[in-house]
Design goal:
This protein has 4 helices and no strands. By secondary structure, the chain is mostly helical.
């Protein structure tokens, strides 16, 4: 067995390739920094409602509108990527690749219907 210097320099709990793996479950529709920012804006609106209800509602409405815009953009990008992945394939391409695309459409549509 050969000595692997790169592996030896990593912390003991680091598994090779673990950084490239995504966490289990569906991929989030919004990046976490955008979702966190919108959550903070909404929380600010809730916290300031007693002092200025109209301004708090306007802030909450703005956060909602921005969240919807981000979701529409993310869903549009996801749809284009899925479509491009199967549309230009040879009609004789393996059905496994087409089945994967169908599974991805099903997953994202079901997520939308659960909202």
């Amino acid at each position: 067995m050969m000595y692997d210097q790169t592996r030896a320099q990593q912390p003991p709990d680091h598994r090779p390739g673990s950084a490239a793996r995504r966490p289990p479950g569906p991929e989030p529709l919004l990046p976490s920094d955008e979702a966190n920012e919108l959550t903070l804006r909404l929380q600010h609106a809730l916290n300031t409602f007693a002092d200025s209800p109209r301004q708090a509602l306007e802030e909450a409405e703005g956060a909602f509108d921005e969240a919807v815009a981000h979701l529409v953009s993310a869903l549009t990008e996801r749809r284009h990527a899925l479509h491009a992945g199967w549309q230009d394939q040879d009609p004789e391409s393996p059905s496994a690749e087409l089945r994967l695309a169908l599974r991805q459409y099903r997953e994202i549509t079901q997520r939308l219907l659960r909202m």
